[in-house]
Design goal:
By secondary structure, the chain is α/β, with parallel strands linked by helices. It has a single domain, classed as Rossmann fold. The chain is built from five helices and seven strands. The strands form two sheets. Strands 3-1-4-6-5 form a five-stranded mixed β-sheet. It is globular, with a radius of gyration of 15 Å.
Length: about 160
């Protein structure tokens, strides 16, 4: 079983960088069993297509425009996923919609697709997440980790650095 956890977003646009920050957090706080990759996909869009080859399960983390209160957390799967990226919050989300469509056409769309997302407060230029999105980080992290455990992933914390 091959799993890709893909954090998306533009870290220079405040809450839009949520997925990238979550990927970084996962990479620094945990070590995963073989067959699991965590990638900060940033705003790469279609350039990520080769990374989907041979992937059985894809978990995307991103800021999503869902007309909700800032910081609201969402879990989407299957057919709900392309619809979530239809309302474009950022340029990279058009790329995600295209990425998933081309992967499907080429026969590389993972059999299981889940998105964990958060409603952004702002996507204006800035390096910090808004307080509402920062507050949602632990809930999304817990959801992602539970998802991975349900998929049979062994999670370990890395040894302390001295």
């Amino acid at each position: 079983m091959s799993i890709l956890v893909l954090g998306l977003g533009n870290a220079l646009m405040s809450d839009d960088g949520f997925g990238s920050r979550m990927a970084e957090m996962l990479q620094t706080r945990f070590r995963f069993s073989s067959g699991v990759a965590v990638l900060d996909g940033g705003t790469l869009g279609l350039d990520l297509l080769p990374r989907l080859e041979g992937i059985d399960r894809l978990l995307i983390i991103d800021a999503l425009e869902m007309d909700a209160e800032p910081g609201a957390v969402f879990r989407l799967e299957g057919e709900e996923v392309p619809r979530a990226f239809a309302s474009k919050l950022s340029v990279h989300q058009m790329g995600v919609q295209d990425l998933l469509a081309v992967a499907e056409l080429q026969g590389h769309l993972p059999s299981e697709l889940v998105v964990w997302g958060v409603q952004p407060g702002t996507v204006e230029m800035g390096l910090d997440l808004t307080p509402a999105v920062t507050a949602a980080t632990d809930k999304v992290l817990a959801g992602v980790l539970e998802e991975l455990r349900a998929w049979g992933v062994d999670l370990r914390h890395p040894p302390e650095q001295f």
